[in-house]
Amino acid sequence: MVANSKLVKQRNIPQEDVEKINKLHITLDEMVEIMKQNEVESENFKSALVIWRHCQTRLQILWKFDIDQSMWQEHRLPHCKCPKMDNDDRGNHSWISGDCPIHNNK
Ligand SMILES: [Zn+2]
Q: How far is the CA of 56 from the centre of ligand 1 (A)?
């Protein structure tokens, strides 16, 4: 995945930031792949969530968008057991499942 060139032009994103955006997307894609291939290890997955949020925040800054957690779609992460449709509707990950290895706070 590479940065949408139309949006790059529209938002006047400098080339060096486009490269950072592309690298962040690679990191996120690789992380999702690693999560898919691995058994659930709660502690590792919680670290993955911290990295996920950090990268998403960086992306929104680089794209010159406001920081908006509802755009991060973290209920779509592999092994997340939180409700999908409810979180799609409400954004901001309002709904957390008690047995989710990524989002529960136990
Ligand atoms: Zn979850």
A: 16
What digits encode the pLDDT tens for the residues 26-58? 999 999 998 888 877 767 788 888 999 999 999
pLDDT of amino acid 91: 62
81 Cα to the center of ligand 1, angstroms: 5
**Identity at 51, one-letter amino acid code:** I
What pLDDT sits at residue 93?
67
Helical H segments across the chain, by residue range:
5-10, 15-37, 42-62, 84-90
CA of 77 to the centre of ligand 1 (A): 8
Domain boundaries, the chain: 5-90
Of 41, 48, 44, the C-alpha closest to 77 is 48
**Contact between residue 28 and residue 55 where contact means Cβ atoms under 8 Å apart:** yes
